[in-house]
Amino acid sequence: MKNFKKYLSKPQKESRFAKKDLKIKGGFIRFQIGLVASLIFCYLLIESAFAVPKVLPENDIEILEEDMSYSVPVFEVEKEKVKAEKIDKSLVKKLDNDFKVVDDDTKVKAKDEFLNKPEPKVEISLVDIKYEKPEEDVDVSFIAIEDKPMFEECKDLPKDQQASCFKENLDKHVRRTFRYPDPAQELGIQGRVYVNFRINKDGTITILNTRAPDKSLDEEARRIINKLPKLIPGKQRGRPTPVTFAYPIVFKLN
To answer: Buried b vs exposed e over 199-235: b needs ≥16 C-beta within 10 Å?
Structure first.
């Protein structure tokens, strides 16, 4: 490479240097143009920021002031002249005679017009009378009732033993009253009958519904429950309350 540079001719070297000079001069000119343009832009910006407002002639200022002026309407409040009414002196004297100041111990007789004044009649319409509906009885289950319904044999027992006493006496009543129906016995029908009954507020029994595998078993279960004696009703908050109880009766052949 070094040997090749030595053999280059002078015209070739001069052309290369001329091109470099042109590039340098072109870049310098472009720099000057950009500098001048930026200076002009800055000058215009400063002129616009610090522009001096134009002063209008005096005639124009007067015209503008006339256009902008406006008048506010004035509201005047008229004061009413109060005329002093003349007081009748004779009326004042009459009032003084009618009303006299007396001591606390002085007895004052009431006038007849106050004593014999009839009392105003007060008319009462049926619309003003409010009728309160009696509270409806709501059935409460045997488990949820506060005071359990009882047989007479259980009334002297403490509360925690009353439920078990009720079931024991109910079982005794069923065993004592139970009678297997002949048609079911002949046909070999057996099963469990569920009886749902209510102990009313007066201690009587009402059967609500039953579920049985046979009609004869259903009739016998109803007969047994209807034979229950009058019980001591259950109570909720100290008031007699109807209580529901579900009881299964098993019919089984030996």
So the answer is: bbeebebeeeebebebebbbebbbebbeebeebbbbb
